[in-house]
Design brief:
The structure is a single chain. The protein is elongated and about 60 Å long. By secondary structure, it is mostly beta strands. A hairpin with an 8-residue loop joins β5 and β6. The protein is built from 2 helices and 12 strands. Helix content is 13%, strand content 38%.
């Protein structure tokens, strides 16, 4: 950010009074411009014993597989965003069951919220942001071609929880490292993740 959206004045990095970090502050009118994390919402759509994944047709990670998810829009709920993203990317209709994965990604200033969902029918096709859309059984998941650490972690949790028939909210932080990522479980999540 370079200019104030209130008056057009130049912004400078300053720590406002009673704040604990640098912010963009207008040198003309004093308006403080806060930059906050973005919310990504989506779902893990299930049909019988398979999950629906989308092969990305856009960057980043074009050609890699993901769950239907994207940035939440203004004036929508996280549930509405998850349903919208599923339609946009997979032309699929879903019934959301419950929040399932809540991941912090501080390195890119994002928070991911993924719902468990049931496909209302096996009708789907690629939307404009997807090259392909397919149902995968666990044995067929393209583990080496998943787009993001959030997708891998969600799927790993799902396939551990599915045999138990219990799907608690899974929380944690995704931390990039050479050749992949590290997952740090949240305080209420006692399940040890697989090595990535």
């Amino acid at each position: 950010m370079n200019f104030c959206n209130a008056c057009g004045g130049r912004l400078t990095g300053k720590q406002p009074r009673d704040d604990d970090r640098l912010r963009h502050v207008c040198s003309e009118c004093g308006t403080v411009h806060y930059q906050n994390p973005k919310v990504v919402t989506g779902c893990l759509p299930v049909w019988e014993d398979s999950v629906l994944l989308c092969k990305r047709a856009i960057e980043p990670r074009r050609g890699y597989w993901t769950v239907p998810a994207g940035f939440m829009e203004l004036d929508e709920t996280v549930q509405q965003g998850a349903i919208r993203e599923t339609w946009e990317e997979a032309r699929a209709r879903v019934e959301l069951l419950a929040p399932y994965a809540l991941f912090n990604l501080p390195h890119v200033n994002q928070v991911y919220l993924i719902f468990r969902a049931r496909l209302t029918s096996p009708d789907f096709r690629p939307g404009p942001e997807s090259e392909d859309v397919q149902l995968f059984r666990e044995s067929m998941i393209p583990w080496h071609d998943l787009a993001f650490g959030t997708v891998r972690q969600t799927l790993e949790f799902f396939y551990r929880d599915q045999p138990l028939g219990r799907f608690p909210l899974r929380t944690g932080t995704i931390i990039p490292q050479a050749g992949g990522f590290r997952f740090e479980a949240g305080p209420d999540d006692q399940l040890t993740p697989r090595d990535s």
